[in-house]
Amino acid sequence: MSDLLEALLRVLVVLVAFLLLPLLVGQAEHKAMAHMQSRVGPMYAGMFHGWAQLVADGVKFVQKEDVVPRDADPAVFRIAPAVALLPYFVVMLVIPLGPGLVGQDLDVGLFFVLAVMGIGVIGTLMGGWSSANKFSLLGGIRVAAQLMAYELPFVLVGASVAMAAGTLSLTGIVEEWQPWWLLWQGIGLVVFFVAGLAELQRPPFDMPVADAEIVFGPYTEYGGLRFALFILAEYAGIVVLSALTAVLFLGGWRGPFEDSLGWLWTLVKTFLVAFVVIWVRVAYPRMREDQLQRLAWQGLVPLALLQLALTAVGVVATA
Amino acid sequence: MRFPGTGLAKGLAVTMRQMTRRSVTAHYPDALPDLPPRSRGVIALIEENCTSCMLCARECPSWCIYIDSHKDVVPATTEGGRDKSRNVLDRFAIDFSLCMYCSICIEVCPFDALHWSPEFEYAELDIRELTHEKDRLREWMWTVPAPSALDPHAEPAKELGAAEKAADKARAADLSAAEGAPAPPPPDNSAEEAP
Ligand code: SF4
Ligand code: SF4
Description:
- The complex is a heterodimer.
- Chain A is mainly alpha-helical.
- Chain A is about 75% helix and about 0% strand.
- Chain A is globular.
- The interface between A and B is medium-sized, with 14 and 13 residues.
């Protein structure tokens, strides 16, 4: 009985984090992006520097009418946002915050995480396919092409870390982590981050939603709560990607006072990475589709293979 | 040699530097904007100057000036003189929902009855309430900044010269009438003495 209760409690805590952290990232994006563009961003909602802006946005989205286009495939159209959002929740369950501080520690955590993260993209693809709108379809196809191109380097560098640590467990990887891995796995870190950005369709890889060309890609026909879920999925994706980068490459909870403040270290590192995600969005223009594909196949895949070779040499040499 | 990726780093540096600077946002409802004194906020009217000549209303490209007037008869002041008539302004209104702030009415008014005021907070909830009558236009006149000072050594305004000459003449006539001495004072209308 107490086991069940504890499991429920863990899920509840992760659920709260899952709803809260994306909002924090979203608000940080509002503010950081504004100041990077010499603006001040939201100022009124919540009376103090617009802290409640996203809450207000949420209330607005909830009030809107739920529209399903006449020619759309209603069932697929309706569940697509859930398919986009839920995988990130599942991934968050297995990401460790500190030693023992994890929703559910899996032996094959890394494998599980990489597999489930791919499903989130399918949600977007479903939305694009079922909308009966050519812009949505184009966007969906671009999502698929992007997923194809970037999943490979993403998984390859994930494998490299697993090889270096000798385990697939996320907790195990953090425990094996050494500061000099920052150099050894440096290429992997960059490749993982860039490929992750591309999978989330974040700028500068937001070709699937390029608003100047295809309205809003797969989300064109969505409005109200379902649209809000897609946006929430994007920000949950940022949190998950940042947390994974922190855990796999930046040593998770490792740092001074890691026994007592380990969870804080994970959070700080996660938010630092999330800030870089926002920063990159402001600094760079959107990439063209061909540039996008070239970067993946001619840039990231060879780099990921190089990293894999480096890791193999390192593991054999130190063994 | 250009190291690959310099451009990427520069992009990040620029945005980061921008973030540390103060934003340029004007916090309008909380803080009043810092407007140039001659901003085209609203059109003010000096009713006393207006002769109901209708020039402004006719030149207005959006036909948004409404003028009603009637003629008043001023009885002759001298025996056997002719009665004079003069225009009296009944209504002067500008529809600011149509006005495009082109300033043509102000340029064209021959009697300097229209002026730009920097006042701009006259939004209304109903578009029909944006037609402002002459009382309101007269009130805005108090917010019109005084004309800018002349350049040093510039000629004084023509009106000033004419007024001063008339005053001098009157004074000289007074003097000669009182003393019988035909010695008019030298006309003096230098810029320093201009009131
Ligand atoms: S500013 Fe132009 S549009 Fe407005 S009332 Fe004067 S002439 Fe008409
Ligand atoms: S042009 Fe000047 S004087 Fe003539 S009606 Fe218009 S405001 Fe009055």
